[in-house]
Write a structure and sequence with these properties.
The protein is of the alpha+beta class. The protein contains six helices and 15 strands.
Length: 285
């Protein structure tokens, strides 16, 4: 159940937009490649991948994917960051927002959580890389949805239950703070009226037990309890938990949202567990 574990811009004008080449690479997969010209004559390149467990009406045109440059210092953008933006910044080497805005009348739909990946050579990979992908509804508040950061040069993996705005940031928050925020998001989603009381009760037990282990510093045990939570969500997806998103905007993909946030939480718990293991090895020396 666990997920796959600088360029100065002084933009006085609105964000620069450019065409994005979107290709369908499989029945349930697409990629978007972009090369964005900056005001100082540089080109920022990258790719964005989407892989659906199950979809209908999937075409590049229906997805309506667009990459554009943003101003890393734009107050309106920063105001959308979680926690008043503390510890979060847009890397000047890659100030790119990818927006996925499926056309309402396209008939496009998908189930469960979507695997997405942002790839670029503009950023350098390091151990315990600070780069994350934030996701937000169009013009709405961002939240961290990262499930992994891997080499090549930087590939940031995320899960999401809906669309549309994806943004790479550097995140210097302590991993424990990021984990607390993820626990809080999951608790809030469980309180959503779309989660039936009986299902909510079962999931809350697993989440509470995971959080208790987290508070005690037993991060691997916290991950084990979170595994139980994810298994329960998977079992209830399409049964008691709605698990479909449609471009028409008439359905709430509750199971996908819970699964995506749980995998983001697991990413941060894994970071904590790794750091704890490194500390233990140091103590043995």
């Amino acid at each position: 159940m666990r997920a796959l574990a600088p360029l100065a811009l002084a933009l006085a004008a609105p964000p620069v937009a450019a065409d994005t080449l979107v290709t369908q690479t499989g029945a349930n997969a697409v990629r978007a490649d972009f090369a964005l010209p900056t005001p100082d004559g540089r080109i920022v390149r990258g790719s964005f991948f989407l892989d659906f467990a199950e979809s209908s009406g999937l075409t590049p045109a229906n997805l309506n994917v667009r990459a554009r440059l943003v101003d890393p210092a734009d107050p309106a953008l920063l105001a959308r960051f979680p926690g008043a933006g503390a510890g979060l910044s847009v890397p000047e080497a890659f100030p790119v927002m990818v927006s996925v805005s499926p056309l309402p009348g396209s008939g496009f739909a998908f189930s469960d959580a979507v695997a997405a990946e942002m790839y670029t050579k503009a950023l350098a990979f390091t151990a315990d890389s600070p780069f994350r992908v934030l996701k937000a509804p169009a013009g709405g508040a961002f939240n961290d949805q990262t499930t992994g950061v891997i080499e090549g040069s930087v590939r940031i993996r995320v899960r999401t239950h809906s669309f549309s705005d994806f943004l790479v940031v550097a995140d210097t928050r302590p991993a424990a703070d990021a984990a607390r925020a993820a626990y809080a998001r999951l608790s809030a989603k469980l309180d959503d009226g779309d989660v039936p009381a009986a299902t909510r009760g079962l999931l809350q037990i697993d989440l509470d037990e995971s959080f208790e282990e987290f508070l005690e510093g037993d991060y691997e045990d916290a991950r084990d309890e979170l595994d139980a939570f994810e298994l329960a969500v998977s079992a209830e997806a399409g049964v008691s938990l709605p698990n479909v998103w449609r471009a028409a905007g008439d359905l709430d993909n509750v199971a996908g949202a819970l699964a995506a946030d749980a995998q983001n939480l697991d990413f941060h718990l894994a970071r904590l567990a790794t750091a704890e293991g490194d500390d233990d090895e140091g103590d043995d020396d």
